[in-house]
Amino acid sequence: MKTKLLTILCVGLVASCANKKSTNSVESKTELPYYQEATFTPKWIAEDSPELEKFHKIPSFSLINQLGEIVTEKSLEGKIYVTDFFFTSCPGICPKMTTNMKLVQEAFLEDDNVMLLSHSVTPVMDSVSVLKSYADRNDIDAKKWQLLTGDRQVIYDLGRKSYFVEEDQGLEKTEDEFLHTENFVLIDQNRHIRGIYNGLNKVSVAQLIADIKTLKESLATEKSEQPF
Fold first, then answer.
1. Domains of the chain by start residue, with CATH
2. Is 180 annotated as a binding-site member?
């Protein structure tokens, strides 16, 4: 009886360890799903499917970066990018998000096809000069990582209606409510949403980095298959 009980306990312990390992590991993927609404329900679509022509895309926008340059969707044409929402005076989650976004910056620092965008949710306070000081303090490379300010309504509409950064938990906000979220969102070269990640969790950020590499491989394959 004791031997049987010991066997059961050992099996349970092994299973428990295996489960803990799986929750802290990065999943290797051959392709990524698409997302088009706030529940982030994944949809698997072939890259050459006509369905993508009408699928949700990040709309046109015009904002200003830490160098005082205008940044639009055309600035990101043909590029993969990661986006989040922050503010420079944030004492809570933003510093850790910045630290973790720096991991993405380091992973693709020499890759011109990958960009990072961080939108200020307090654009009145986060002027170009304030963003530049924040970038300098945090070793943010302007060639890789754009800190954006501009019209508050444009930024909040992008966050809530285009990137769905707050809506993954089904929480609806009014226009007057403050936008605050730890989520990073992955956008492909065609402005489609391909993933959402917890910017406070290093394992989630590691998955983001792996998924960017998956998108890059997919893009390279797509280009190689195009006729000359």
1. 56-219 (3.40.30.10)
2. yes
Q: Which of 141, 92, 100 is nearest to 121 (CA)?
A: 92
Asked whether the beta carbons of 131 and 65 are under 8 A apart, the reply is: yes
Of the candidates 61, 66, 62, the one whose C-alpha atom is nearest the C-alpha of residue 88 is 66
Q: Which two tokens stand for residue 182?
A: 């730890």
Tokens representing 171 are: 């929480």
**Contact predicate 106/72, CB 8 Å:** no
Nearest to 118 by CA among 84, 159, 82, 94: 84
Name 174's bridge partners: none
Tens-of-pLDDT digits for all 228 residues of the chain? 444 433 433 334 333 333 333 346 788 788 999 999 999 999 999 988 999 999 999 999 999 999 999 999 999 999 999 999 999 999 999 999 999 999 999 999 999 999 999 999 999 999 999 999 999 999 999 999 999 999 999 999 999 999 999 854 555 666 667 798 999 999 999 999 999 999 999 999 999 999 999 999 987 766 656 665
Q: Is 10 annotated as a binding residue?
A: no
User: Residue 44: helix, strand or coil by DSSP?
Assistant: coil
Residue 168, token pair as written in the block: 């993954």
90 is in an annotated binding site: yes
DSSP code for 161:
I
Tell me the two tokens of residue 158: 């992008």
Question: Within a 10 A sphere around the Cβ of 162, how many other Cβ atoms?
Answer: 18
